[in-house]
Amino acid sequence: MADILDTLLDESMLGLVIIVLVVVLSTGYVYIQQMQAPAGGGATPRNANVPPGTRGNVQGGGHMGAAAALAVNAIATANLTEQQMRLHRSLPSRHGARTITICVDSLLRDKESDRIAWITEDTPNVLADLLQIADVYLLCVVADEKNKAMMERIRSFLLTSHPALAFDDKTKRGLKTHKILFCTTTIGKIAFVRQIEPQFHVEVDKIAVRDLEKHVPRIVHVTSTAQQDAPVGPAAHHVADTFAGYFKLLSALAGP
């Protein structure tokens, strides 16, 4: 009987020692992790709501990193024309910077053919004005992502058909090749917009508008059947029959 009691006591002591060791090791691990954590709040959470273009640039820097990235894209107003200044005052921005995404179908007709053309004569001029007051991405849905020649024709037309759209190394404004993005579905286009996180989006597809109205502060739905098909929502503030017509009206309403 005594031997049995001694054995039970030995096993109890061993179990207690193991529990104490586990607690000590766990406490030490947590302490080491806290000591190694960077000052200033640590890395930005993966799904944090950071300004467009700053995701991945704010590690360990929090809001200071985001502000620094935005400062690079801040809009310089000194050399803006009166038309551009009116648009600048009328469009939403964030911390002095602005990102706009535009569906190419609101700009071009017959985009996948040799007859590719601007929808209206003043479309490229209005686009050029937006390029001076925003970081602009053009989103193009195509039927075949393997048709490289067709995508290059669209890209070349956008970049070279109007001199006002050319990128200026001095002002760092103008249309950039890598900001003309292609996809084959509306879902792909929606994914682009949500990744870019613009303050303003121009769209022709009512399905895309309805999906994005919860994520984009302001959307313009360009459609010839606005009265019948225009979606309703807090972000889809405006509906227009043409891209250029909307922004020209917006500029006129802004006043002198």
From TrEMBL:
<keyword id="KW-0812">Transmembrane</keyword>
<feature type="transmembrane region" description="Helical">
    <location>
        <begin position="12"/>
        <end position="32"/>
    </location>
</feature>
<keyword id="KW-1133">Transmembrane helix</keyword>
<dbReference type="InterPro" id="IPR037485">
    <property type="entry name" value="PEX22"/>
</dbReference>
<dbReference type="Pfam" id="PF22978">
    <property type="entry name" value="HAD_Pex22"/>
</dbReference>
<protein>
    <recommendedName>
        <fullName>Peroxisome assembly protein 22</fullName>
    </recommendedName>
</protein>
<feature type="region of interest" description="Disordered">
    <location>
        <begin position="38"/>
        <end position="58"/>
    </location>
</feature>
<keyword id="KW-0472">Membrane</keyword>
<dbReference type="GO" id="GO:0007031">
    <property type="term" value="P:peroxisome organization"/>
</dbReference>
